[in-house]
Amino acid sequence: MQKTANTTIIENENTLLLSPTGSGKTLAFLLPIFQKLNQENKQIQALIITPTRELTLQIEQVWRKMKTNFKVNVAHGGHAKSIEKHNFISPPALLIGTPEPAIIFCNHREAVERTHWELKQKGIDSVFYHGGMEQDDRELALIKFRNQSAHFLVTTDLAARGLDIPSVKHIIHYHLPNKEED
């Protein structure tokens, strides 16, 4: 796995690795990243985005076991902002992170679905939620968002009425609300 992946990653900007658990995928992508890092560059040189905090921590652990002498930081929800700011006083060569969940508001159902599919095409996990959906589908979307299977909930103002999702720290208004109170 490592040998094949190394060649592919070095030659290509984007690479998708598919293989069973325990086959060496983590090392397969970390080794070529390590080869590309420059000790003279004091900025972030590589970014790894993961879907879960656990995977972020696992990748960090493998990197530290490699004893590369390149600084690594993880960024995920659950730390105080002061800790994250302190970690960037001297930027790491490698940053591994998990995006915090966000709600994206659109004014129309069609815009909700279109925005959701645009995110999906870019490999960004999202679900959509609006009044035109069956109740079971709306509930499933909320379950996926709450358990962070999807990091973005694309919705109409329906989600502004009574939903309580404590993990959400970011709200994005893709369209401006129609009324001030919305």
Keywords:
alpha/beta; Rossmann fold; 4-stranded parallel β-sheet; 3-stranded parallel β-sheet; 6 helices; 15% strand; elongated
Tell me, what is the CATH class of the largest domain? Alpha Beta
Residue-averaged pLDDT: 85
Tally of distinct domains: 2
Radius of gyration: 19 Å
Cα-to-Cα separation, first versus last residue: 52 Å
> Treating each run of at least 4 consecutive H or I residues as one helix, how many helices?
6
Low-confidence stretches: none
Number of strands: 7
Question: What is the 3D shape?
Answer: elongated
Order of helices and strands: HHEHEHEEHEHEE
CATH topology of the largest domain: Rossmann fold
CATH architecture descriptor name of the largest domain: 3-Layer(aba) Sandwich
Task: Please state roughly what percent of the residues sit in beta strands, choosing from under 5%, 5-15%, 15-25%, 25-35%, 35-45% or over 45%.
Answer: 15-25%
Largest sheet: 4 strands, parallel
Instruction: Name the strands of the widest sheet in spatial order.
Output: 5-6-4-7
Structural class assignment: alpha/beta
Share of residues in helices: 25-40%
What is the assigned CATH homologous superfamily of the largest domain? P-loop containing nucleotide triphosphate hydrolases
